[in-house]
Amino acid sequence: MPSSQGHKPMRVLISEPLTPRVRRIVLEGSVGAAPGQYIMAWVPKVGEIPLGVAMDGRETWLLVAKVGKVSSAIHSLTKGDYLWVRGPYGKGFTVPSEGKVALVGGGYGIAPLIHLAHSLRESDVKIRFYAGFRTREEVMLEGLLQDLSDKVIISTDDGSYGLKGLVTDYVNYEWPNFIFTAGPELMMVRVVNEAARRGKEVEASLERLIRCAVGICGACALDPLGLLVCRDGPVFNGRLLLRTKDFGKYWKDFYGRKVPLSTKR
Length: 265
Ligand SMILES: Cc1cc2nc3c(=O)[nH]c(=O)nc-3n(C[C@H](O)[C@H](O)[C@H](O)COP(=O)(O)OP(=O)(O)OC[C@H]3O[C@@H](n4cnc5c(N)ncnc54)[C@H](O)[C@@H]3O)c2cc1C
Ligand code: FES
Hints:
Blueprint (H helix, E strand, L loop, with lengths): L7 E10 L4 E7 L9 E6 L3 E6 L2 E2 L2 E7 L3 H8 L5 E8 L10 E7 L3 H11 L5 E8 L8 H7 L2 E6 L6 E2 L13 E5 L2 H13 L3 E5 L15 E2 L4 E2 L6 E3 H5 L7 E3 L5 E3 L5
Parallel strand pairs: 8-9, 8-12, 9-10, 10-11, 12-13
Antiparallel strand pairs: 1-2, 1-7, 2-6, 3-4, 3-7, 5-6, 13-16, 14-15, 17-18
The chain binds flavin-adenine dinucleotide and FE2/S2 (inorganic) cluster (FES).
The site of FE2/S2 (inorganic) cluster (FES) has 12 residues, from loops.
């Protein structure tokens, strides 16, 4: 088997559907990621993509949405197959040692928040987990969220499960000392604005096209501060993001062109 750019082969222990679009892939062994860091997952002859880490210990958990060619190839892996991994990369969440924490996630964006909640489990930190999904069939891992948190609030856009509407409408922004958010960017813009308005500490995990993952190619730069999502993020302080022109508005496509975020998915 080829070994390129420091990838290591990790054996698939479990691949199971969580929703029609998202699979949980469990790999044998640890990638050594801190909560919020990401890995680059390579399928030979297909390509390589960045993925967050939902759990890291004796096993590594990935929550993978089927979007295009590489994520589809990862969905096709079965028990005993290998996924090639390099990393972990980037900066993760600031992990508090005390206080009250609100985690606000949407869709597979709950992955790094699950990792964070897991790492806080042995501490005195109180956790409220707000998770938003489009419909009932996209709700995932509710039992795990309950196990990891003091309170779980689930919403669906269409009201088919849990509370109806956007999960951001149900967040109690006064309660926590720290707010962490990951998921659709427009959701995170709302969370960051509300938190910043109330003077709360807030961090958000961003997605951009990531190619090199080590700060060389510039594919993931945020204007005008030149922050690199791959190296300076993917987790950023919310107030810093509000100083960029790109947060909630633009990303760079495969050709390096700046395009509206609405064209991303
Ligand atoms: C730090 C980080 C963490 C991520 N964590 C997860 C995760 O935990 N689970 C998960 O399912 N996905 C995650 N993603 C998104 C994932 O990397 C993309 O969905 C994936 O790269 C799509 O590749 P593809 O080959 O399947 O699709 P492609 O065939 O390459 O593209 C299909 C569409 O997906 C979009 N896309 C492609 N590449 C990216 C990219 N790098 N970032 C965002 N959008 C892209 C484009 O709009 C494109 O039109 C993360 C992205 C980043 C940057
Ligand atoms: S992906 Fe190359 S600089 Fe960030």
